[in-house]
Structures are given as C-alpha cells and as structure tokens.
Specification:
The protein is of the alpha+beta class. The protein has 2 domains: 2-23 and 46-194 and 211-270 and 575-612, D-Maltodextrin-Binding Protein, domain 2; 313-572, Roll (Dipeptide-binding Protein, domain 3). It contains 19 helices and 27 strands. The strands form 9 sheets. The chain has a 5-stranded mixed beta sheet. A hairpin with a 6-residue loop joins strand 4 (87-89) and strand 5. Helix 11 crosses helix 17. The chain is globular, with a radius of gyration of 25 Å. GO terms for molecular function: peptide transmembrane transporter activity. Residues 98-517 form the Solute-binding protein family domain. It comes from Polynucleobacter kasalickyi.
Amino acid sequence: MRIFLILFFFFCQPLNSWGSHAFAQYGTPKYPKDFKYFDFVNPDAPQGGTLTLANPDRRTSFDKFNPFTLRGVSAPGVAGLMFESLAIGSSDETSSIYGLIADDMVLAPDHLSMTFHLRPEARFSDGSPILASDVKYSFDTLMSKKAHPQFRTVYADVKQAVVLNDHLIRFDFHAKNGQAPLLVGTMPIFSPKWGVKADGKKVSFDDLAFETPIGSGPYLIDSYQMGRNIVFKKNPQYWGNHLNVRIGSNNFERIVYKLFSDDTVRLEAFKAGEFDAIVEYRAKLWAKSYVGSKFKSGQLKKEEFEHHNGAGMQGFAMNTRREIFKDPRVRQALGLALDFEWLNRQIFYNQYRRLDSYFSNSLLGASYQANSVPKGEELALLEKLKARYPNEIPATVFGPMPSANSTKSPNSLRGNLLKARELLSQAGWNYKDGALRNAKGEAFEFEMLEDSPFLLRILSAYVRNLEKLGIKANVRTTDFALYQKRLDQHDFDMTTIRYMDSQSPGNELLDRFGSMAADENGSDNHIGVRSKAVDQLIGEITNAATPDKLYSASRALDRLLIHQYFVVPHWYNPTHRVAYSAEMGFPPPPLYYTAEWWILTNWWRKSNMQETK
C-alpha cells in the first residue's frame, strides 16, 4: 500500500493558488495553459513493443488486484497503470499539478472547497463515461472501512464530495488545509461497476480479489499467473492519448512483471535477458555482480542517474509500543552501536552517505546546513510548543542537530559503546550475570524482523556490536506476506523502515507520525509516535502558505523527531543505479522521480523507432 501511495503522491504537490488548467502552491505553474507536453518526455517516442520488468519492490507474490484494501498483497503495476486521478503532477517542478480527468479546477476564495469539471471524453476501461457520481463513489469508498485505513487518515480534512451535475463535483473541507485541494485532485478514481457479477450481484469492495479492475488508465490486464507474473496490454480505446499530460508517456504496447523468489535469482534472470531493466539498491551487487559477457558486448548497460529527490528516512525503527523502547535514552544508545563507516568501507564500497534527518538531502530538513540551530519562525514554533507541551519538547531541540554517530577519528566504536553503556545505565539497564538487565533482572532482548536476506550481513555486524553491550537481538527473516501482515498490525520489536521524502510534505505525515494513526492497523506510524506537538507541527506543514513557513515547520518537526531517537538512521545514495538492455531508449531524467516510475512511463523500445518513423 505504501508503494501505491508513493505513485499517487510522489509526483504531486500541495497547492494554494488556482487556475483552470493547473494549480501552483507558490507563484505560477511552469507550464502555461496551451503547453504541448512536459519537457521531460520525448514527444516522438516510439510506440509499441513489450517492456518486461521484475519485482518492483519487496513483494515476491500477489493474491489480489485491488491495491486499495488492507488485506493481502496486490499485483504490481495495477495501481499506476489502471487507475487515474482528476489531476497529475509534473516531475520537473515541486509545486504544481495539471488536469487529467478534469479539465478545469477552481479553489473557492475561502479555500474551504475545490470544484472540478470532468472532461466529457473521459472514459473507464469498459467504455462508460466518468461522471461526477463515480468520483464521489470513489471518495466515499476510500473513506469507508472497506478500504485501507491510510485513506481515512490522508483525507481526514475532506468533509464530503458533492455532485453538482454529471461533470461537476465539489469537495468540501473541514478547515483550511493547503494540501487538501491537492489530495482530492490526485485521488484514484474507479467505477462502481468494479465487482458487479453477471447476475447483478456485487462483490464487496473489501472482498475484491481477482475481479477485473475498472479504472480509466492506459492499460488493461491481459493475463496473469497468480503470484508469478502479470501481463498488461495497452487499451486500444484509451481515452487520454491526445492529452498534453500524456504525450510521450506510456509508450509500450505490453508491460510484463515477472516475480522472482529472491534477489540472486532475479539478477541472474536479468543477465540471461529475461527482463529489460532493473533498479539496484544493494551496493555490493552493483559493484561486483553486474558483469559478464553481455555487459562486455554492450547488450546490457549499467548507469547511475542523478536525482534531486529528498532522501527521506531509512533505518532500524523501534516500536515504542514495546516497553523496552519507551525510554529515549535507550533508543539513543542503540543508535550508537551502528558503525556506518565500517559498513560503508567493508560492505558498501563507499557508495553511500549517512542519513542525519527525516528530510535528508533537502532544504526541508534541519540539517540543511552544518550545526544549524533553530531561529526565526522555527524557533518561535518550538518555543510555543515548549510552553504548551513542556514534557514533549526536550531542551536539546533548541541546540544544534545531533550529528550522525561516527567512528571517524577522534571518535571510535569503543567510545560510542561507552557512551551507549552510560545512557543505558541512566535508563536502569546494567550488565549483570552475562547480560544487560533492568532492576527486575530481565535481560535486554528483542527481535529484529526482516523480509529479505540481503540485510543479513549488515544486521550481523550490528548485532555483534549490541552483544558488546550485553544486548541480545534475535534476527528473524520471513516472507513478504507475513512480514507485511505483522507490519500492518504493528507486531514487531525492531525492523527496517523506509519513509520516502516529498518535495512538499503534507498529510502523508499524519499517517506516518500522527497520534491518530498510532493505533490504526495498516498505518505507516510503525514507530508508534503519539505527540500533540508533532500533530501540531504536521498541521503547520500542511497549512504552510509560503516556502519559508514550510521550511520552518518541517525543520522543527525534523528536530523533534531526531532528538527522540525513534530510528537508527541508515544511509542514502544521491543517484539511481539502473541496469538495462541496450534495446531501451529514454529521455534525460527529470529532477524529481523514482527510477521504476520513470522507466515505466517515459522509456521506449528502440526497435520500434524505424517502424514509428
């Protein structure tokens, strides 16, 4: 589900100002009303051929098509290829969206409602027109308990959807929220006929499994083998080919996903020519395994593509619902046991940089400059919160951001572990009888839950360092389906999380760090953050009217989260590592993009070039 939300939010940003063809948060959108196509596409891209891809993420199987419900694992590609929204974002700017299903958008002067006019030519895959009632049905369904609970958090500020006529719909908001117009504009739209059987009976939305989805996207499901592969074909009746926001996109006639059981099998399949492109996230594999006769001959290529995405946060997350992780001193101590410099040198081939913020590689983070301290509006926000919630704002947030733990000289792992031991002692944990124990004599022991073996070398090194403190960490790897189920139920001690960054963060933060999401199964608040101060800062972010207000609020939130030590930060790469067949063609990458989505939407097959000409 997080992958689905990325697809709909990554390329779209929150807005306050308005016009008919586009919305911009600050100033005016880059593209005028009569623009022909986005600058980051090739408008003459060859059409046709097949793109074959492997697992786009950690899933190794699927048991449903419906990407909008909690139970089960959805098939890759369905969310992005089969469903569309009223508006779509641009990958070369951070604050604008443009009409897709809608051709006109108006934000009320009081910012308490947003009205969309639907294109009369817009059609679902079954040929039926997309009407305002379908948009309302989609919203009401996503807000119901039949859909994934994340949607109720994301759209919490939307009061209702009101049908004005067949092609006009208005969304009313509970209060002013700078991101609310964006959220309703990028909401996925689907038909009420999805799940209707031949006898007229309808399958409940939360029971939809392999019933054919009815959306308005450019692709249809052609065939599938449950849990193994899925094949999409271009809808010959796709309604949106002529739109400026679609020119140069969706260039393949067929898209095939093959799901492999593990990373080694997948890489060998790529080198054997079983699929066309792969995005590599493992430094060792990139450095050592992308070799062979096809790379030497040029049939296969490997390349690192620069991006300007914020790095977000990845790390070992502690579930603060567990008593053992409730004390921030304990969480800080566990962070001191990770030796990034050793990992980068011995395992990562020095390809990574250390994360030191929830908004790393971005002006949104409090680490945007070295030794930064809160000032101006950011300082005022923190002081106001300190006065209101004194127990939630540690005094340390008013000083510099803590630098990521390092073992570079004059620091050392031994020195870091000594600091960790002191912090643990202050929290009531001391070494006795061969283990770190609390006053009750209970040993400090927890489970590290993972779904992939590729982290085992990293985990082994981390576990060895924890053992030096008397802590026992039991590593458990499981299949993705069970892992996701336990994650959805927040049933874990420690696990690896990845929070994708946005250039304009907003309501997704409520699902990630909001108090209401802490006890909601399926939410992204795996850490279990419950803080009125955090909730208020998220509100400041979503309502920011200027870049300066956004930066002040996001940096204040970053400081507060970092100083609570919820996560042992990992590392990031400022490039996308992509290996691909020489048959693939592509335009220069945009500024802000995920590699998988760029390949899927903007690449083409060179063998079709002559035919196209």
